[in-house]
Amino acid sequence: MALRRALHFVFKVGDRAKTATFYRDVLGMKILRHEEFEEGCKATCNGPYDGKWSKTMVGFGPEDDHFVAELTYNYGVGEYKLGNDFLGITLQSSQAVSNAKCLGWPLTEVGEALYLTQAPGGYPFYLVDKEQPHN
């Protein structure tokens, strides 16, 4: 059987500037591509919204061989109600922990070398204070 992997995760964002700061400056991800759309996605890939929207792909490396995040922004929607089924994403990166501390981004120590923070909009991220793996 062929090896399979998750390609990306979608986050609905209400504040693009703050969200970019978090993913780029705190987590250390790069903006890989950005697309603008004038009409809603016919496959409802951006939710029940039928107006102008955008998606920005961010990650630690190219989409072809790295897991990435898709940041979906629906114009005119400033916030989203989060459900109760998303428990968080865990990243191993001492650099992200250091970045958060330097930028004054809120961190809560929840275990040995384990911190909880939130992206704008309330999505939880767990940061393991260890060197980021190379792959």
Automatic annotation (TrEMBL):
Classification via InterPro entries: GLOD4 (IPR043193), GLOD4_dom (IPR059155), Glyas_Bleomycin-R_OHBP_Dase (IPR029068), Glyas_Fos-R_dOase_dom (IPR004360), VOC_core (IPR037523)
Domain (VOC) ranges: 5-130
Keywords per UniProt: Repeat
PROSITE patterns: VOC
SUPFAM superfamilies, alphabetized: Glyoxalase/Bleomycin resistance protein/Dihydroxybiphenyl dioxygenase (SSF54593)
Source superkingdom: Eukaryota
Pfam families according to UniProt: GLOD4_N, Glyoxalase
Family: Belongs to the glyoxalase I family.
Name of the protein: Glyoxalase domain-containing protein 4-like
Taxonomic lineage from the root: Eukaryota, Metazoa, Chordata, Craniata, Vertebrata
Name of the encoding gene: LOC102196260
